[in-house]
Amino acid sequence: MKNTQEDFEFTSESVSEGHPDKVCDQISDSILDLFMEKDSNSRVACETLATTNRIVLAGEINLKNKNKEIGASLIDEVVRKKVKEIGYEQDGFHWKNLKIENLLHNQSTDISQGVDKDESNELYGAGDQGIMFGYACNETKSLMPAPIDYSHKILKTLSDYRHNNDSFFGPDSKSQVSVLYKNNRPQNISSIIVSSQHLDSANNNEIRKKILEIIEEAIPKIALPSEKKILINPTGRFVIGGPDGDAGLTGRKIIVDTYGGAAPHGGGAFSGKDYTKVDRSAAYMARYLAKNIVASGASRKCLIQLSYAIGVAEPISIFVQIDKEVTPKVQKLIDIIKSYFDLTPFGIKSFLKLDKPIYAETASYGHFGREYNESKGTFTWESLSSVDLFKTNF
After folding, report:
1. Active-site residue flag, 66
2. Is 174 part of the annotated catalytic residue set?
3. 0.90 exceeded by the pTM?
4. Could you point out which of 12, 103, 283, 304 has its C-alpha 20 to 30 Å from the C-alpha of 70?
């Protein structure tokens, strides 16, 4: 097929909650939630490493309320609980038997003096320098790119099946979806790859049959390719998986976490970081703005970049990219953003309500394209509360 800007094939991947890196992301965010529950002003940057029956925790923590101490035993309990929830009870990685090495320590005073230097005036600075991107497009109901949206849906459906049935599937799995675009719009899926850990007793035919059923449940059948274009466990067998088969680290799946490569990424990971770390909070805010702009009908696609300096509250720059036909009005969008939205760390925290224990749920199946749950306070950046503002002012 002729490869032009309008006609092309694009691929994105996802990984399950049992993937070694995602195990680490979820542990880091579960520890963040623990601290946020005890003290909403906690400063947390928790990194996790997972390997055969071992978890190593490292990074910086700082409880602002010194009366609410969190002991090592409680952190140990949170780690084991999360591993158990994921479903690891294997010889090489078992929630009960794994060894936990806790190397967490207090936050650097050099960082905290920049972040908290003016907290009395609610103008604490960004926790680090960096560039953050947010993106939205009208390819799917979730306003996400189709390849990553489909990839997540396959694995989430597989996960739901595994948790609700006595099945032969293990926690570790990956998916990859290629979508054919014509005139810059998704037309159909050209290929699908799914690899899932399984019991040694399961045979390849029954594994393939069940995963095909799961794919058909997750994705509209009309969009599916022929069965020969659906590859399932292409290496043949996938019995040894999770941290026993491959070491995991927090923050290694940043493209899976965002837009599947369909939009730029600033390079910063999310999990284990509190809201003062703008590589998380500002990325959430950029997604919120981009999603509301697209939902308002102002543009079919929207890319937003925010940049920050450590210790400085206001963003250093704001970049917005929209459809060619409305590009002459891009400055109008930037002016609206500057006029109506507080993009300081405090402003983002307050607007998106990020000082709550809402993070563990974000650490698998993508931080974006999820359902905003008002009652739980999760995924506030997926809310469409500013659609009318953009409709009225743009």
Report:
1. no
2. yes
3. yes
4. 283
